[in-house]
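Integrin beta
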Amino acid sequence: MDWCVLSLLLLMLGKHGLCQQEEVCSKSAITSCKDCITSGPYCSWCKELNFTKGGEQEAARCETRAKLMARGCKREEIISPQNTEEIKQQDPLSKSSGSTEPVQMTPQKIDLKLRPGLPHTFKVSFKRAEGYPVDLYYLMDLSYSMKDDLANVKRLGGNLFDALNKITKDAKIGFGAFVDKTVLPYTNTNEEKLKKPCDESEAQCQAAFGYRHVLSMTPSRDVFRQKVAEQYISGNLDSPEGSLDAMMQAAVCGDKIGWRNSSTRLIVLATDAGFHMAGDGKLAGILEPNDELCHMTGNLYEKSNDMDYPSVGQLAMQLEKNNIQPIFAVTENVNNVYKELTKMIPKSVVGVLSSDSNNVVQLIESAYNNLTSKVTVTHDILPDNVRVEYLALCEHRINEGPNKGVCDQVQAEKEISFEVTVTVDKCLEEEKSFTISPLGIKDRLTVTISTNCECQCNDPEGSNHIHCNSTGSITCGICKCNQGFVGQFCNCAVGTKDESSLRATCRRQNGTECEGRGDCVCGACQCHTTEQGTSYHGKYCECDDEHCEKYDNKLCAGNGKCNCGQCRCDPGYQGSACQCKVSDEGCRTSDGSICYGRGNCECNQCKCKGGYQGPQCKDCSGCPSACLTKLSCISCLSLSKSKENCNNVCNNTISEYKKVEKFNLQSKECNQKDSEGCWIKFKLEQLTGMDNYNAEILTKRECPEPPNVIAIIAGSLAAVAVIGILLLMLVKLLIHMKDLKEFKKFENEKKKSKWANADNPLFQNPTTTVANPLFTGE
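Predicted structure tokens:
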């Protein structure tokens, strides 16, 4: 008891005492009372007529109640809507369960009118009625591995009723069985195997099925034992079973199962295997998702082979919707699997069955006590922009997050309470509602929410109030001008002028009117005062004297004045924040100049220009080489007799120059080609200033000799002749080598030839011999 008192004391301190949050009004773009009260839960509006001064913005009316009263606003002139609560129905808690339906939670209906951002807390009481009716649905796995378990359930049926009667005198029990979908790969689809999926040696075996409802809720133990005794074992192929299919149908088929409206509803799932879930149906080509509807025909789940298994989320939602609390009575081998499942299904417990389910009665009794002794209060789907948090006020509070209140070890007839805090973040256009309930219990609290976003200012009637120059009406302390009049007090007559063109003159570069810091009155900006009491200024109220650079946490280091965002330093100080005394000791160079004339001395340090670098702006590593940039000027000076002739080229960047035979300057030597192609050598000495040099130029230029045209032509002709002769010799050589190759080929073929000596009978000698018969040879 002392612990309870201490907890309540700490809670009160947290809400109303030491830990109380400071009230802050975070406002922005406030032009009306509604803008004010919707900008933060602690913002209040002062509707007093003369609260703001001339030129002061109306947003000054919006602050916390304490600050407004400190500024002189009367308490009765402050508008600050508060949350209101109206209990519509609050039936008292019942002491026990009787003939009428017991009330275990109160109140039952409550209306809240809330201001956005302002939390509102109310109390909900709960007391578990003794002897509350119980409906228990025993859902059993009848796959072949559960053969021994079924025999024990048949034997222990009477004991189940005895255990329930210890809990309540009004108990009913039902029975259902499941195996798995009767398609491959879950079940053997051979016709004989579908009729008898068990082993051949098994005499009593029922045909394969998905889920069968056997017995609706009954108070008769004899009927229960008779129906269970008629059940026989069945079988399937794979290890996981269709338990989620069966639980879904048992949850949504309320008329078939016989669930009573006012009872504690329990499903006892007895199995020794895991479960199939959404997506597993694809293995059998079942793609249609589970629709969470009842599909029972003749006590059989007719869509078992047409619809996929339900997901765990779908099952959890339907169990919660129908106030059903599952008890998973499983064997040791799948205990861890179902423990993980209970984390996703609210108000569920796991008990370990013995190998033959001999301890099922003790398991159910223990699981029921665990379920009923733990009270969890939470809500259904919340409207948009609504937040709900819970705080359990009990001895054995369990912290499971702000979205639920949990009390453990709650005995029957013991009253406990929960603090419910509701917050609306934005204005609601219409009434919204949600319900709060203990998980697994029918009692409901309906919370109806509306928002309080309007200011009830009770403004004086009439459209010509004297406060508004008799040309406007009062709206929560602000003048609302009649047509043709504008201004804070409606004192500017627009007349024939176009109001939009008048307001356009108050905008800089088509921006915000008077930079949001003033009012456009008759075409001119009337600037507001700042929060510190000074005034914005400038044609468009663009300037203020409070946002200059700070140094040492002081505006303008305390050595100057802020003017339109810039520090104007007192004599003897300088710097962007007036943080430095005027001094140039650190900026003096060896020649007595300040930063070599290439920078400004600020805060005793050189701020260099044009890429020159500190500490005294002597060098410029990133600048182009002076040898290149001054080449045109040096070329002109080397050829000219007078410096004046090169003024246009040099632009007065060369103070003095000399033509010398030998260099005297110690600077870097430049060797560049001029426009005539001659190499010119010179040296530059940089003087004080940005672009100021002395120069020394060597008198002698190195110009290359002109080319010998005759020699070039003669050489070219000789080269052409030599190349021509060489080409002819090459061609001749190639022809000769080809002829040699052909001749060698001919000789080789000639050696390979074989000539025949036979006479040709057709051949006739072309020589004819003629004898003179008269010739005697003398």
